[in-house]
Amino acid sequence: MKLRLLALATSLAFASGAHALTPAEIESARTAGSLKEIYFSGASALRLSFAAYMAEVCDTATLHVFFDSAAGSAHRAYGCTLAKAVGNYGIGTQVVVYKRDAGGSGQGVNPVATATAIDHMNITSAGCSAVASNPNFTDIQSPNYLCGGTVKKVSDAGISDVEPDMLNQAPNLPDGASPADLSSLSVKPFVQGIFGVAVNKQAYLALQKTQGLDNAGAIDESDAKRPSLPTTFVRAMLTGGLSATTTTKRGWGQVISEAVDASVNTKQFNVCRRAPGSGTQAASNIYFAQNPCAGDSKIEPLRTQGTIAASGSGPYAVVEGAGTGNVETCLGTTVNGISGAYGIAVLGRENNPLANGGDKGYRYVKLDGAEPVRWNATTQKGATTGDYDFVFESTIQYNTNYLTDADKVAFVTAIGTNVPKPAALAAADADTQQGVMSPSGAWASLGQYPALTAAAKPFASRVARTAAQSCTVLKLVR
Predict the structure, then answer these.
(1) Are 397 and 157 in contact (CB under 8 A)?
(2) 351 shares its domain with 242
(3) Same domain? 58 vs 170
(4) Quick one: signal sequence residues (predicted)?
(5) For residue 257, which phi and psi values (nearest 5 degrees)?
(6) Which CATH number fits the domain that encloses residue 222?
(7) What is the value of pTM for the model shown?
(8) Fewer CB atoms inside 10 A, N or C side of the chain?
């Protein structure tokens, strides 16, 4: 499942003369007019699922992965010759597909609707450097080249974790932006995204010890030993409803025992979150604060303040990041790097803190005892059947007034149609698979749920909110 270039595939590739699409070859094809370049922006929470689909349709012997930096937080791109036809682009077509993550879902809505040029990665021989440790394609999360330069381009299409209207109003509208006219957008459902609440490893171990789930004083990594947090506690943490004092005991001490951590009641509340415009943040605002859904009853999420620490006079420290990678670094490196510090964040579940044998320093917790997984074959429970409900449907959209190239429209349409299919999600990188589900409309043609194949069932969602209305409740629909 790990979408790696196997030795056999490598030997066959060399035998056929196939070779990776390097920056020099990209420049040459661009000059010749044979290169197809398609620009996407938005939804950094879905960046791995998007990349996994590119690995499915590309000839992996020609595929190269481009990051803007070692972490790839802001921009990524995928260059290859197609091994499968996508839209009107046939097998053998040279393509580069750009994915801007910076700014999150809001960059897949407002600038798409207004046809405004924004920064996208610029792949050139002079501006890109090879990553020596990864000379050939091995994994969608490992870059072959780092390309730090950008160029202004209007995105051909955008992706957002929730429908565009949710990103077009407070508190999700990017700072300084005005609501856009969305009438020119062609909006289609994409995948269902599963979101999770994560804490840094120090907090995770303290929770496990408190709940009797640790492994002799160390973290137990099994799903069965995953600790749980009350939704009410997370809501208070994200909206400023806690106080770190020994008299109120309305802080980390509500969920972590003093026998585990004697100073727990004075622990600072470190919150790592996304900036306005993020679809992940919009999902968090809707789920935990009913904002903008509940009118006068909505709660305002906390914004930037304080300094990350173990204990402090804050008692809050809130750090906002432009992309998912920034939040992962804030929680798993910054917070977890301070002895005794506890922190919390909301992330898309396609992000695996233990991906590729690494450790990003954070772990996902249960919410009210519900496990944040797409499907658990052992318990026969998961988000697909509504046992876990922190779920929202993403959308893919393009500006019908701007995108008039029929071939590009067909490519964008094919992405929107094919990525959500159960078979595509089942073939994706295993690290991404807990974070995405196939909406019922994407697998409707396959028949009723009992008739699905064993491979399709774990990815076929049977729940949904009302179409394009994220403020509605999640309900069983199939």
Answers:
(1) yes
(2) yes
(3) yes
(4) 1-20
(5) -75, 145
(6) 3.40.190.10
(7) 0.89
(8) N
Inside any domain, residue 186: yes
| DSSP class per residue in 316-373 | EEEEEESSHHHHHHIIIIIITTSTT--EEEEEETT--TTGGG---SEEE-EETTB---
77: β partners: 66, 98
* Domain assignment of residue 169, yes or no: yes
First-residue to last-residue Cα distance in the chain: 28
Shared-domain flag, residues 59 and 69:
yes
List 187's β-bridge partners, or say none: 397
Encoding tokens for residue 97? 């597909």
Single-letter amino acid code for the residue at 396: I
The whole-angstrom separation of Cα 366 and Cα 381 is 13
Q: What is the pLDDT of residues 90-137, one digit of tens each?
A: 999 999 999 999 989 999 999 999 999 999 999 999 999 999 766 555
3-class state of residue 430 by DSSP: helix
The pLDDT of residue 136: 56
User: For residue 472, what are the domain limits?
Assistant: 23-192+392-476
Handedness of CA 323, 201, 48, 185 (dihedral sign): negative
Q: What is the count of structural domains for the chain?
A: 2
| Together in a domain, 212 and 324 | yes
Cα gap 325→44, rounded to integer Å: 8
Residues 470, 392: contact at Cβ < 8 Å?
yes
| Per-residue pLDDT reduced to its tens digit, 443-453 | 999 999 999 99
Judgement on whether residues 159 and 111 belong to the same structural domain of the protein? yes
Residue found by looking up tokens 């804490």 in the block: 199
* Closest-CA residue to 320 (of 176, 175, 167): 175
